[in-house]
Amino acid sequence: MDKLHIRGGQTLGGVLKVSGAKNAALPILAATLLTGEKTNIHNLPHLHDITTMMELLGCLGAGLTVDERLSIEIDGSSVTKLVAPYELVKTMRASILVLGPLLARFGAAEVSFPGGCAIGSRPVDLHLKGLEAMGASIAIEGGFIKATCPGGLRGAEITMETVTVGGTENLLMAATLASGRTTIRNAAREPEVVDLAQCLIAMGAKISGAGTSTIEIDGVPALSGADYTVMPDRIEAGTYLVAVAATGGKLRLEGAVPHHLDIVLDKLKESGASITTGANWIELDMEGRRPRAVGITTAPYPGFPTDMQAQFTALNTVAEGVGRVTETVFENRLIQTHEMNRMGADILIEGNTAIVTGRDKLTGAPVMASDLRASASLVIAGLVAGGETLVDRIYHIDRGYECIEEKLQQLGADIRRLPS
Ligand code: EPZ
């Protein structure tokens, strides 16, 4: 397995272009199954999860044409298979997002039941409850979700027990072709949900309220193809801002959308960064200062994003003062703290809260990544630590960060990939 070798201690700085958002691209690629016409999607990030989703679409029979910039044309007219196989679903849980589109367009779908992962059990019960409310019959057989709705889905009033991004996205996509109106209450408000809705509207869907907690969808008989550009990745943007802030440096991000990161930028200001923004750029400058510790409690958007929690935990390990980090979304998303303590961090876990007492510095060590954002936080810890850090199992990183070592090298980091 590839490893990342880091010699920490540099103050990072420079300019970076933000890639397309993985967590918008994945549902948008699944949405192309809703039409028998051709759909063109642009600004896809070069990530393992994206190629896995493309492989899944191909396995279902969709025609894919990819250009050198990873813009992709998907032809949904040749979709013949309605089964998402175990081999693909086990490598990427987001495969569950093909369930709603396949069921809505073809009246049947089989998706291998996605397992949990390092951060939690990751149930999909709310996806299934919502589809049943729309008239689907769902059975779990042999590790597969088998869904049918021969007469087609019908609009329904659905209130989500828990705010779920994927659940909202699956039901939003399914409702576009249901007969009648669907109302989704307590819907997720993430920018990635809004991006999906805008793509569906471009395909002819009738949707209002995306980005609020109540989304209304009036089903239409069919959707058409469209040409759509995926939004920039706010979590990638936030990750590099935190990495540079932790080293006391200065960073300009091109192609970032500031209002997607309001609360993250507020926390960076609280930590001592000076932040300036424009319509599509963000500039951070620590002016050489050591960051101050910040308190974090994760919550659904517009609250503090759980996908930025591990990165801020890393920042707090070398900040002035004590920062309390509380994870409320996933039951096991403080796991990276144990590896950070092996680097000399002072982190105490109390329930779902990490109490981080900042140290002057960390010491490099061999560490092991466990999930996508935890891996990024260990890279940040390596960048601020003295000595050498070796991050193992970085396939987790390759799922969500495009060319991470090249981008960090561009900022002055001493980091290289050691092929296995
Ligand atoms: C999406 O996962 C993201 N993934 C995650 O990003 C992100 O952390 C998460 O949303 C929260 O923002 C993609 O978009 C591909 P949820 P998702 O359903 O949809 C519970 C990353 O690092 N729940 O919003 O799977 C669940 O257990 C990844 O890029 C149910 O109980 O997350 C959790 O506690 C990690 N029943 C909470 O909801 C359900 O049916 C939020 O999960 C569904 C979810």
Description:
It is built from 14 helices and 24 strands. It is α/β, with parallel strands linked by helices and 420 residues long. A four-stranded mixed β-sheet has the order 22-23-1-24, with helices on one face. It has a four-stranded mixed β-sheet with strand order 2-15-17-16, covered by helices on one side. Strand 18, helix 10 and strand 19 form a beta-alpha-beta unit. Helix 1 runs parallel beside helix 2, helix 4 runs parallel beside helix 6 and helix 8 runs parallel beside helix 12. The longest helix is centred in the middle third of the chain and has 13 residues. The N and C termini lie close together (5 Å). Bound molecules: ligand EPZ. Ligand EPZ binds next to helix 1, helix 5, helix 6 and helix 12.
